[in-house]
Amino acid sequence: MIASIPWRQSLGLRQAGVFYALLALLGILAALAASRGLPPYLAPANLGNIAYQASLVGIMAVAMTIMLITGAFDLSVASVAALAAAVLVGLAGQIGFVPALLCALCTAAMIGILNGVIVEFVGINAFIVTLGTLTAVRGLVLVVTDGRSLMVEDPQVLAQMLAFESARVPLFWPLLALGAVALAIATLRLAPAPALGGLGLLALAGLVGPRFTVAAPVIYLLLFTTAAWFVMERTVLGRRIQAVGGNAEAARLSGINVRAYRLGVFILSSLAAGFAGALFGSRLGAINPTAMQGAELTVIAAAILGGTSLYGGAGSVIKTVAGALILFTLTNGFNILNLGANYQGIIEGAVIIVAAAIYTLGNRKRGETR
Amino acid sequence: MVTALPLLALRHIAKRYPNGTQALVDASLEIRAGEVHGLLGANGAGKSTLIGILSGATTATEGAILWRGAPVRWRRPADARRGGVSTLYQHIPLVPTLSALDNLLLGAPGWQRRDGQQRARAEAVVAQLGNPFPLDALVANLPIGARQMVSLAQALLDGAQVLVMDEPTASLAAQDRQAVYDVVRRLAHQEGKAIVFVSHFLDEILALTDRVTILRDGRDVLHRRTEDLDEAALAAAISGRAVARLTRRARRIGETVRLAVRDLASPAGLAPISFDLRAGEILGLAGMLGAGRSELLHALFGADPCARGAVLVDGTPVLGPGVVTNTGSAVAAGLALVPEDRKRQGFVAGFSVAENIALPRRGWLIDHATERQQAEAAIAALAIKTEDAQRPVGTLSGGNAQKVVLAKWLTDQTRVLLLDEPTAGIDIGARVDILEQVRRLADEGLAIVLVSSDFAELLALSDRILVLREGAVVADVDPATSSEIDLTLLASGSAPACDGVPA
Question: How high does pLDDT run on average in chain A?
């Protein structure tokens, strides 16, 4: 959040720990795979797969990070996603894919407005309000689907949905271009952080090769994350969102319309959830009423792994995506390496607590020097 | 009853924090039973660290603590409390959801509640203080002055011999202050307790204490009996230079009406108020705590959604029929507010100096270079003490943080500056700095509304003073012909309202 963090510190455990953790985890899993004589774990196809699996949660977690930065909270995202998926799948056969997608997003936005208005204008705690909408919207999904699985019958619409969700996009050239831009910024500004990012992107491009493709949701996640990062770090809008979370009263008395920002963030969170839900519904052209149940906790866990403060004011969308990748790398690793799925929950839970402990202890150590 | 041997002595204390900050270089302090000992110093002089060492919250890197002549080592606040030193902090650590009695007994030993017996002890202690609060009242419902008494009673129940009071009167209204003075005097002179009284108010130090120690830059620069001191000597010792009190001077006020206020009222506690403010004019608002001064500023600034009436800046309505009012539109019209509680309302602690100064600016993309330049210009203009513009404002001292809050409004856009207690909790040197800056801004054509509880400050700076009482203007005073006593009498309602009162 503060541009002044010296570069030595910006590479430290507290600032960049989530990236180290992701790399370490990948390394461990790769070693395990090699020792068991399995196909190479770090194969581009598998990495692309992890990114694909993480993309829906990643999209919601990026919006959740912005929400947490303003000091609010949204538990209803998974239910909203399921509702959007149900609306999309239910309507697509009759009105076509694009109108149905718009309807799904509008429905999601309405829930966001409802959440935001209750929190802001009635003044109930966001945790309680969204706990309520979590349950109520899931109930609405049951009503909409009549408790059964819905599916799209029309083959033409189904093809559109698959194109939206499962199209393969080559990653080589965009990565190369992004890496070059980051390196150019690094040389212009003499800043080490973009240089490292650029080198990472180029290395990734080299790793995947020109023939490698990823599924479309990965690209959506990439675009959304980049846009969110740009808004949060480089625009006055993002600065004001951070100020609202850092000290709402000071922000208000500086002429910032705190309510509008908070309401906007609720809408953003629900829209992101709606988009993720639309992707989910398009994956199979079908939806069952319990889809994505419990995903909101994974979303929040990703944001916390990324170092987002639950008290508002601090967080980074890029680190949140790294957090989501860690969670799905764990899942993926357990499946591929057959490590005994029973232990997965224990490990995931422990990872979240250890991460939170590192952030908290890091903060305390820095606090003591004052 | 002054005994020869000091009850508690700090000898040549030095404290260096792990990050290299040398908060104390060489400070000594002797506290005697039966005396009120004033401790003063500018912000950053090392007072807080010294209090921390007294309370056991901080350990000194060098030096010795002697309790009745014998060296002791306190590693935790509990050690100091057991030793007989209790510290009362500015922000009173009580459990608001428990009753006063339960709070008093929080530190009681044992695992069993023996309410009858303990209640009797608590009642005795509270009676000693003059029964300032009912024992069974919920702390959340007690006014701030009474809460302070609860925490004082807590310390006495713990058997404190030395009471360290960190700015106990900073957040109190006049009558509550008087209650604190009475209790402090009684405890010291009748009960034989030793009291360390920390304050920024020179008059109360002179009136209340028996002995004074002044810290400057981590050293003790003055130990003396209070009767040998006056305000000028204190101010000079605190700042290390002779501080000229701000004096009135003739000022030229513009012709144009910058701010026009018509029948501004609010259910938050404002009777209809009307006045005009010209370019270059400084309007003082006097009143007691709760008289509606902050409420008036908030209503002017569009921060009170229930406010009614009309507010015009250079003829453009900010509040009125058919106008959408919020803080954003007020800022756009040229209003600026430096709020009373700078930590809670004024700055974002995690943001850097540059980011805080840029907070009200509009625009789309962040231009770091321009922001840094503007911040550096403000740092130079207001003499803000900070290593650089990238430092989080939460790490600056009170006076410097206040200057940052002021700096964020020094733009071409600002036409009317609303200042709510801009010098509260700020040491005398920085205080004069800020006030002179305010006058300079007015000379440059800003219209200024100044709220201050320091009536001397108001009289020196204002061109005109409105006295508020219970949300209404009760007097319109010419500062050139009025005294602090006049203002106090008007504000507290013990004088007949004079002429010039709006009907």
Answer: 88
Nearest residue of B to residue A253, measured between CA atoms: B327
CA A122, CA B57: separation in Å to the nearest integer? Answer: 42
On whether residue A324 sits in a domain, the answer given is: yes
Are residue B37 and residue B125 in the same domain, yes or no?
A: yes
- Specify whether B13 is located in the same domain as B65: yes
In a domain, A102, yes or no: yes
Is residue B246 situated within a structural domain? no
What six digits make up the tokens of B413? 């856009």
CATH at residue A292: 1.10.3470
Q: Check if the beta carbon of residue A323 is closer than 8 Å to that of residue A302.
A: yes
Distance CA A270, CA A292 (A): 15
Tell me how many residue pairs between chain A and chain B have CB atoms under 8 A apart.
97
In a domain, residue A93? The reply is yes
State how far residue B50 is from chain A, nearest Cα, in angstroms: 14
Assess whether B231 and B114 both reside in one domain.
yes
pLDDT tens digits for A9-37?
666 666 778 888 899 999 998 998 888 88
How many other CB atoms are found less than 10 A from the CB of residue A247? Answer: 27
> Which residues of A fall within a CB distance of 8 Å from B349?
246-247
Domain count across chain A: 1
| A35 Cβ under 8 Å from any chain B Cβ | no
Q: Are residues B403 and B462 in the same domain?
A: no
Q: Rounded to whole angstroms, what are the CA distances from A263 to A119, A134, A270, B465?
A: 9, 18, 11, 41
What's the CA gap between A75 and A80, in Å, rounded? 10
Interface contact flag, B17 A370, Cβ < 8 Å: yes
Tell me the C-alpha to C-alpha distance, in Å, between residue B251 and each of B46, B245, B247, B264, B472: 38, 18, 12, 28, 28
Residues of B in contact with A2 (CB under 8 A): 350-352, 355, 390, 392
**B328 in the same domain as B384:** no
**B244 within a domain of the structure (yes/no):** no
User: Nearest C-alpha of chain A: how many angstroms from B347?
Assistant: 6
In a domain, B1, yes or no: no
Average pLDDT over residues B175-189: 87
Say whether pLDDT at A364 is over 70: no
What is the span of the domain harbouring residue A73? Answer: 41-160+236-368
B398, B403, B404, B405: CA torsion to nearest 10: 90
Closest chain A residue to the Cα of B362, Cα to Cα: A236
Residues of A in contact with B368 (CB under 8 A): 3
Report which of A199, A171, A172 is spatially closest to residue A183, judged by C-alpha positions: A199
Q: Is residue B2 pLDDT above 60, yes or no? A: no
Domain extent for B49: 8-239
Q: Which residues of B touch A247 (CB under 8 A)?
A: 344-345, 347-349
| Closest CB from A4, A240, A246 relative to B349 | A246
ipTM of the shown complex: 0.81
Query: pTM, whole model, 2 decimals?
Result: 0.79
Contact B350 A313 (CB under 8 A): yes
Q: What is the rounded CA–CA span in Å between residue B156 and residue B228?
A: 31
Closest CA to B145 of B129, B159, B158, B161: B129
Contact between B282 and B438 under an 8 Å Cβ cutoff? The reply is yes
pLDDT at B114 over 80: no
pLDDT at A9: 62
Q: Do residues B270 and B384 share a domain?
A: no
Instruction: Name the more confident of A188 and A125.
Output: A125
Asked if residue B249 is part of any domain, the answer here is no
* pLDDT on residue B498: 45
Is there a contact between B434 and B399 (Cβ–Cβ < 8 Å)?
A: yes
The domain that holds B228 is classified in CATH as 3.40.50.300
Residue B364 sits in the same domain as residue B260: no
- Let me know whether B112 and B212 are in one domain: yes
Least confident segment among A16-25, B168-177, B391-400, B464-473: B168-177
Inform me whether the pLDDT recorded for B127 exceeds 80. yes
Instruction: Please check whether residue A107 lies inside any domain of the structure.
Output: yes
